Amino acid sequence: MVKRSGVLATAASLGLVATLLSSCGGSDDALVWYTNPDTGGQAAVAAACSKKLGFEIDTQVLPQDAGQQRIQLARRLAAEDPAIDLMSIDPPYTAEFANAGYLAPIPDDMQQRFRDQAFDGAVEAATWDDQLVVAPFWSNTQVLWYRKSFADKAGIDMSQPVTWDQIIQAASKNGGTVAVQSNKYEGYAVWINALISGAGGEIATDTEKGADATIEVDSPAGEDAAGVIAELARSKAAPPDMSIAQEGQAGTTFGGDTGAFMVNWTYVLTGAGYPEDVVKDIGYTRYPQTVAGEESRPPYGGIGIGVSAYSDHEDEAIKALECITSPDNQGLNAELTGNMPSSPEGYKWPALKKIYPQDLLDLFQQSLDAAAPRTVTPYWSDISGALISRFHPPSSVDKDTPADAQKFIEDVLQQRSLL
Amino acid sequence: MTTTAQAPVGAPVPAKKAVASDRSSAENKLGIRLVAPAVVVMLLVTAWPMIQALYLSLFRYRLTTPDEKEFVGIGNYATVLGDGLFWKDTVNTVIIMVVTVAVELVIGFVFAMVMHKVIFARGAIRTSILIPYGIITVVSAFAWQFTFSLNNGWVNSWFSWLPWISDNTNWFGDHWPAMFAIMVSEIWKTTPFMSLLLLAGLSQVSEDMLEAAQVDGATWWQRLFKVILPNMRAAIMVAVLFRALDAFRIFDNIFVMTRGAQDTESSSFLTYRQVIEQFQLGLGSALSVLLFLTVLLLAFLIVKLFRVDLAQARGEG
Amino acid sequence: MSSKSRAGSLAGTSVGFVVILVWCLLPVAWIISLSFKSAAETGAGSPHFLPQDATLDNYKTILGFGTLSDGSTPDPTVSDAFLRALLNSFGVALIATALSVVFATLAAYAIARLEFRGKRLVLSLALAIAMFPVVSLVGPLFDMWRTFHLFNTWPGLIIPYMTFTLPLAIWTLSAFFREIPWEMEQAAQVDGATSWQAFRKVIVPLAAPGVFTAAILTFFFAWNEFVLAISLTSTTSSRTVPAQMSFFVGADPFNPPYGQLATASVVVTVPIIVIVLLFQRKIVAGLTSGAVKG
Question: What is the ipTM of this complex?
Answer without folding.
Answer: 0.90
